[in-house]
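so i finally got all the pieces together for this one. its two components total, 513 residues if u count the protein bits. some of the lines might not be protein, just check the labels. i wanna see the whole assembly predicted at once instead of chain by chain like last time, that was a mess tbh
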Amino acid sequence: MKKLFFVIVLFAGMAGITFAQVGVKKKRQPPYEYGKAIINNYSAKVGLAPVVFDHWVHRSKFTCRLCHMDIGFSMKTGETQLKAADNMRGYFCGTCHNGKMMYGDKKVFEACSKEFTKEDVKRCERCHQAAPNPRKEAEFEKFAEKMPKERYGNGINWEKAEDLGLIKPIDYIAGVSIKKAPLATQKDFALVSKVEGIPDIVFSHKKHTIWNGCEVCHPEIFIGMKKGSDKYTMVDLFQGKYCGVCHDTVAFPQTDCQRCHTKPV
Amino acid sequence: MLPAIALLCGLLLSVTGASADFFDLPPLPPPNEYGNLLINRASTANGVKPVTFSHWQHRVKYTCRVCHSELEFNMRANTTEITEMANRKGKYCGACHNGKIAFRHNGNCDKCHNGDIAYGRDKFEMFAKIPYVRTAYGDGINWVESLRTGVINPASYLKMKSNDLPFEKMLILESEMSIIPPSIFPHKAHTAWLDCDSCHPEVFNIKKKTTKHFSMSYILKGQFCGVCHVNVAFPMDDCKRCHPGIRN
């Protein structure tokens, strides 16, 4: 019996190897899904659909730093391990989604609550999405139409959108953020490419600090104390390290080589 | 054991005279259908005929990157969610087929939804009069040379210009079998049509010598070079184009 099981496993393994597709192009994520995070720490356990979080909605209104520093969301999906109770006490999503916070003239909908009526279920489903929501997709299309275009990711050039004043991401929430005097940003500098013939990278601190301040990247992702103290290659980046923490998941993907490798050879 | 296999291969090659016969090359359509496809993700299910699409008609005017990077067409047929609605909104085919750049789709249903893979055959005959650089393989046109010599001048973007990377490194790749001369890989011929991300890092890893299973048998199944070079770009029976050392 054990032998038979072993043979079956062996065959299954071999079949797996034979059918493993390597060296092919993956299906591209549609623009409205780029930056989507599915959070399912506790949802399924209590019989709810997982939470679908769209970065694009939030980054059109707030800086990255605000949620990932002041509010305290981890950079890795699911790592924050937040519970409904946290939201109800006004932490994490509940910082804004408390039914009181105003964004412009609109009230931000309340996140989780202990008791709810039948009408409230619709509100639950705004985050706990069981099926794709065509309304959200349509909202994205409507928003993206007005934004400067880009070839990859969301199809939106966020940097340009901010630069042109089409979006004005908020970086401060009273009672949560602490106002600090801004630090002077370093001038743009070049990172030398490791492959001959590939243009060097022009890295701009200024473009990053608008969204991230200093603390999103330093010192955890990049020690950043001394130039050259972090050693990395594109291979590391494609594995989701260094620049790859954001670029490939939320910020424009690293496959858009020419966005970074811009210094004329 | 290994020398025995090599000897056997050598014998086979000398008998057939060409290494192409050694591999199980996928059957190829006639030149006027090479690179043509029928797209039928949802057509038949919605009561219309599948869409005919000809690569050669499009690549005269546009490089691969225009559709496969800017317009978000996936590399595998029937995986892109092209819909009538999306086309109307100016996405996918509708980016050009809007009555301004190319024929509009309203009222022109039959031009695409005709289920005939060889629909453009008349146009292909007209092609014979244009002084393209020719080849005996695929659709009969040497696209790389035609572009280099300026016979064709395909656009590299529609609306979103990219700063193309001028990477021109020529790679020499050792063959699996010692009797086959190495293969060349000119980056320049590829970057003229494609973006870096068309191939890297999904099709080819960027770390040197770590691309696993990179062999002819996988390529012929449509992986690695085979993503394009069995269906659109010059086909695999043109051995000498990659392995220039192969004797006739």
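Chain A has a mean pLDDT of 91.
Chain A has ten helices and six strands.
anyway lmk what u think
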